[in-house]
Design brief:
about 550 residues; five-stranded mixed barrel; 22 strands; about 25% strand; binds 4-amino-1,4-dioxobutan-2-aminium adenosine-5'-monophosphate
Amino acid sequence: MSQVVYVNEKSGVDSTEVKGTEQQPFATPAYALFTYPDSKIYVFKQSEGEEQQEGYLEISASALKKAKKGAEGIKKKIEKQIKLDEQKKQKAEEASLKLAELDLIKIEEDKSLPIAKKIKLRTMQDNLETRVAVQGWIHRLRVQKGLAFITLRDGTGFIQAVLTGDLAKAKQTQELTIESTVIIKGVISKLPEGKTAPGGVELKADYYEVVGLSPGGDDAFTNKVQENADPSLLLDQRHLTLRGETLSAVMKVRATLLKAIRRFFEEEGLLEVTPPCMVQTQVEGGSTLFKMDYYGEEAYLTQSSQLYLETCLPALGDVYCVQESFRAEKSHTRRHLSEYTHIESELAFIEFDDLLSHLERLITKTVSYVLEDPVAGPLIKQLNPDFKPPQMPFKRMEYIDALEWLNEHGIPNEDGEPFKFGDDIAEAAERKMTDTINQPILLIRFPVEIKSFYMQKCKDDPRVTESVDVLMPNVGEITGGSMRTYDYEELIAAIKREKLDLESYYWFTDQRKYGTCPHGGYGLGTERILAWLCDRFTVRDCSLYPRFTGRCKP
Ligand code: 4AD
């Protein structure tokens, strides 16, 4: 006799655990039949008549037919699931086998190959078709099946390395990350027409080693430095953002600019000196002084090395320095830093006009040297495609004429009124004028009261000074300079007028006492000229680790 199996749609459960007894019924006839194919099915029924009766009744023929179909379906479904589970298991086994296999792929150097010559990437074009070893950081990475592309960076250049065969398959390659350091050995060849990579070459790797593996996952480099992140977050990660193509390009142009400046000074016969940064005299007004305690005495971080350069003239002739200057600027402008690299020079026995033409030569020649440079030239093209080198002579404009220009163009002074003699031309107005005129301007002859105490008054108009600001489109002032008051009494009067402590300037005023001479000089802000040259929005992008209000780290 066939087994009796019970089904109760309300209280039953379809499960392999269930026995199909009266106490433990299934929920559906289909599942009951699937579990016990030849059984007799009894289904719990509740009659709906007046006298409520309930109990198990044998399944009807039509319901049995339906249940048989259902049981078939369940069987198929379960068989399919078993098959899928088996496939999954097999795949996992294969993958772990593969990984174990990859682990077995040992990257070994073929000792029969010629010894690789260690090179820096800047010389890659001179080392084609010989076995080389390049070392650097993984700038970009693409790992495919049996093929991996690494763009390597070593600070002097970029190269694309191609890894094939076991080199590409090895676990070591599968686990590589951006910014890891590696040594890659192989042969550099020119790329065929139509293929592109840095320098038009490619390094076919025959061996490589990992020197330092960078983290992946949450701590990955790309998570720390995200291109569109908040500027202040990026500044916190400056040590990492420096590795980026734009910032490193600006730093390379910066190095070339300083080299070009030194070349120009050498050609003009100026000698480099290194004045102190810790001083006890101010140059450019008390409001921007960084004060410090110097063994119990008050001292400052230098605002400008000008006064020291002046003292060098009798000993060394014309001099220059490339020195950090410090300004406690409270304002957050895009062209002010608290610490900047100040290029200053001082020239003896010159007239105001000599100073102006020296400045024109300085800027045009330096820029042309930078543009000629094989590294910096192309970088400027990349950073500032529309850059046009300035031509001599520069437009010369007197302060008084600038006021007229500003008033004619409806640009008001800081009080919102038309400019009048003696007004400072603040940053915004100066920028508007410079950007509109859109060429370098030598803005000259500023009034005595808005300029520093040491400036020589004009012989033809003692209300104004022999002073100059060099203004460039997009940045504004990049240089400030002047002829210096060289008459002893006049200088003393100016120091007194500014209420400076005369005694602490004894070493400076002595220059007018022991053999004075007409002389002049200027200061050029490295980050300002770079912002102009590289078309950067702010000078902060032109400094290695910019310092400004609220930022002195990292
Ligand atoms: O016009 P400044 O204040 O002139 C002097 O310090 C003179 N003693 C220089 C000299 O004649 N030897 O500054 C000169 C230049 C400015 O034109 C500007 O390029 C730069 O220094 N500069 C700054 N750059 C960045 N951040 C700041 N806070 C700057 N202040 C001045």
